[in-house]
Amino acid sequence: MLNMELDRFKPAYYEKLEGIGTDRIIDMVEKMNAEARAEGKELVLLCYEDVRVPGDWCHRTVFAEWWAEQTGELIEELYDPSEPKVKKPAAKKESKEPVKKVVETRKEEPGYEQLSLFGLAGI
After folding, report:
1. Vertex 121, ends 7 and 18: CA angle to 5°?
2. 78 lies in a domain?
3. What is the Cα–Cα distance from 77 to 57, expressed in whole angstroms?
């Protein structure tokens, strides 16, 4: 989840989307969908947040809500048979030792391409 409460994030995100322009975003999504279908693929909006946990949200779910308001089309969640990933509260440490950051490298899988809506908008 983002480091902002939903009631603060949503208006700011809607403002960003509206700054790009509803028609422009709809055209970009339709273009990406047509390109995916031409390659025998499906367009999927995704992120790593598990929004099946009550109260969790992400930018993708906010975009899906905005999309439904603009187009009347619903973006459904893909079925995930695994157990929801409930986040455990972080334990407080008394130690003043520096925190080591773990950097994950992502292995690209053939046949998938990650695109950014904002990158395509030239923002």
Report:
1. 40
2. no
3. 12
Mean pLDDT in each 10-residue stretch from start to end of the chain (123 residues)?
80 94 93 94 83 84 92 87 73 55 50 62 57
69 residue type, one letter: E
Predicted confidence at residue 94, as pLDDT, reads 57
| CA 117 to chain CA mean position, Å | 10
Q: How far apart are CA 97 and CA 1, in angstroms?
A: 26
In the structure encoding, which two tokens stand for residue 32, read together?
């990406």
Structurally, the chain folds into a number of domains equal to 1
* Containing structural domain, residue 23: 1-72
How far CA 78 is from CA of 44, 51, 52, in Å, comes to 9, 11, 11
Q: For residues 121 and 119, give the distance between their C-alpha atoms in angstroms, rounded to a whole number.
A: 5
DSSP state, residue 4: S
Query: Identity (one letter) of the amino acid at 96?
Result: K
DSSP conformational letter for 3: S
Question: Can you list the alpha helix ranges (DSSP code H) found in the chain?
Answer: 6-20, 22-38, 59-71, 117-120
The Cα 103–Cα 100 span in angstroms is: 10
